[in-house]
Amino acid sequence: MTPEMVDQDAARLRHRLAQQISDEGNVRSPQWRDAVENVPRHEFVPEFFTRVEAEAGPTLWDPVDPQRSGVRRWLELAYTDSSHVTQLDGHIAPSDVASAVNGTPTSSSTLPSLVVQMWEDLDVRDGDRVLEVGTGTGYSTALGCYRLGDENITSIEVDPTVAAKARQALDRVGYHPHLVAGDGLNGVPGGAPYDRIIATCGLRNVPPAWIAQAHPGTVILVTLSGWLGGTGLAKLTVTGAGAAEGRFLPGYVSFMPARAHASQPAIIPVLANGVPSRSTAFGPDVISSYGPAQMVAQLAVPSAQYLQLFADDGTPEHLVVQDDDSYAVFTGGPGDWSVRQGGPEQLWDKVERALARWHTSGEPGLETFRITVTPDHQVIDVADWTGVLPT
User: Fold this and answer.
1) Which of these three, 260, 287, 306, is where a domain ends?
2) Out of 88, 188, 329, 342, which could bridge 103 as a Cys pair, Cβ 3.0 to 4.6 Å?
3) Are 214 and 246 in contact (CB under 8 A)?
């Protein structure tokens, strides 16, 4: 295909994508619809990985680029409403491999419908100064530049290699925001105060630096997540010095964790012999399924991790562990779970108490949880129970 043909095909595919996410209700304003129609996503994903579907074995990722996959297939994939992994294990790019490889995704281009939905939820106004945490490929940054102007967008990316590629892509399409390579948890003081702050990574708490670089009325949009899988897109408004409050928005939103907030490899404690097991109304299925119960469990034991291992005969083994050697081990199945605990803390006792209060309160949805940030603590109120975010 000639460059002119690529441009024509890309324009057609952008229109199709904009129509799709508009029909689905993710675009609610003409300004953001125009952004999707005009920002060329393919320039930000010149190469990426697609997941190889397999019934068993490790997850494999297949490299995609115009040369190996063909220009048409690459363009079609670039303009699907899908997330595309662009880096594995913190350093592996698609161009580094000859065929499908195993690895853990560490950078991606988020599905456009979610990107635009978040920009819509941020409620930007003309002239607003925005801090974006997690530049990634730069596609979301470009949408912000189209809507608000380069001079109003500051974006920070923790990975210098990823940041450099984003800068090149933004330069190619004519956008020149203030880009910084660094730890987004510290914000970017030079661009403060910000009217809006948006994060495209998962965090265990709201960084105090963000609030310090805001002003009363600043809106912060961040995915609060943790080590048991609980996650929710939180919308907060800064209310004063070091303070903010808000709620979770409806719907499931999950991002890769900020590298400083990612869990460390879990250490499986020595399981004591002779510890009796008991029945429990809440088993590990509570924390393996997205929903408010998962978030409540996570708030009860915010430093714990969930592991699913497999015995030699293929039988799954479920553990919740903490780095102080506290643990809960489960046997049985849905409706018939038993738990055995050990270590300094009775982890599952805490989870059961929190879930029982949530259940007694009518099992309120995630969007009813109230988030409060002060200089001293960060808490989430669930009906008459309060969970503390780790800081």
Assistant:
1) 260
2) 88
3) no
* Closest of 333, 274, 269 to residue 307, by C-alpha: 269
Q: What's the pLDDT at 308?
A: 86
Note the pLDDT of residue 15: 97
Which CATH number is 334's domain given? 3.30.160
> Is residue 353 a contact partner of residue 181, using CB atoms and an 8 Å limit?
no
Q: Which two tokens stand for residue 154?
A: 């500051």
Q: Are strands 278-280 and 231-240 parallel, antiparallel or unpaired?
A: unpaired
385-388 and 316-321 strand pairing: unpaired
Is 240 strand, coil or helix? Answer: strand
Angle at CA of residue 309, ends 308 and 312, nearest 5°:
155
Q: Tell me, what's the pLDDT at 275? A: 83
In this structure, is residue 5 part of a structural domain?
A: no
Residue 108 is among the residues annotated as catalytic for this protein: yes
**Dihedral pair phi/psi, residue 13, rounded to 5°:** -70, -35
CATH of the domain at 202: 3.40.50.150
What sign has the CA pseudo-torsion 229, 234, 240, 241? positive
| Closest among 160, 158, 153 to 176, alpha carbons compared | 153
Instruction: Report how far residue 140's alpha carbon sits from residue 36's, in angstroms, rounded to the nearest whole number.
Output: 10
Look at the chain and report how many structural domains it folds into. 2
The parent domain of residue 247 ranges over 111-260
**Are the CB atoms for 22 and 86 separated by under 8 Å?**
no
| Secondary structure element (H or E) that encloses residue 19, with its range | helix 3-23
Catalytic residue among 22, 69, 107, 108: 108
Q: Which residues of the chain have pLDDT under 50?
A: none
CB 202 within 8 A of CB 219: no
- Position 103 scores a pLDDT of 93
